[in-house]
Amino acid sequence: MTLTHSMTVLQVTDFERSMAFYQSLGFADQGVWNDPPIRVAILQMGQVPVMLQEGEKSATAGGRWNLYAYTKDVDGLNARLVAKGIEVTGAPVDQWYNCRDFAVYDPDGHCIAFAQILDEEKTTHG
């Protein structure tokens, strides 16, 4: 048996604020489900889906990474987010683990990293 894909699920405390933040990053709304007492939304950028689930503050927020998403143009994505006024951790940096990356923090403190693989032939991830 093989896994085919996955979706990151993030607990958010202010549903509308989080929806607006992820849409400002470029994630498109794929649907919202109101199933009291919980609201859930799925957003997607390219092939990367994210589920936002309304609830109490997540114990995982503020970790090193809560979502690590790959792109073919990390510098372009960084420039686009900065031009939109989104606070980023800085310019993308080449890392020892064969990626060039940067991050943003969502309103609940989840660390959302964006990365580009530096050498496709040397990678075991992404």
CATH superfamily: 2,3-Dihydroxybiphenyl 1,2-Dioxygenase, domain 1
Query: Main β-sheet, in a few words?
Result: 4 strands, mixed
- The CATH topology label is 2,3-Dihydroxybiphenyl 1,2-Dioxygenase, domain 1
Strand order of the largest sheet: 1-4-3-2
Rounded mean pLDDT is 89
Broad shape? globular
What's the domain count? 1
By CATH reckoning, the class would read Alpha Beta
Explain the overall architecture:
The model has no long low-confidence stretch (mean pLDDT 89). With 126 residues, the protein is α/β, with parallel strands linked by helices. The protein has helices at residues 15-25, 74-83; strands spanning 8-12, 28-35, 38-45, 48-54, 67-70, 93-94, 99-105, 111-117. The protein starts with 7 loop residues before the first strand and ends in a 9-residue tail after the last strand. It has a single domain (8-122), classed as 2,3-Dihydroxybiphenyl 1,2-Dioxygenase, domain 1. The strands form two sheets. The protein has a four-stranded mixed sheet, with helices on one face.
Short description:
17% of the residues lie in helices and 38% in strands.
What structural keywords apply?
four-stranded mixed sheet, 17% helix, 126 residues, 38% strand, 8 strands, 2,3-Dihydroxybiphenyl 1,2-Dioxygenase, domain 1, globular, alpha/beta
Topology:
Blueprint: E1 8-12, H1 15-25, E2 28-35, E3 38-45, E4 48-54, E5 67-70, H2 74-83, E6 93-94, E7 99-105, E8 111-117
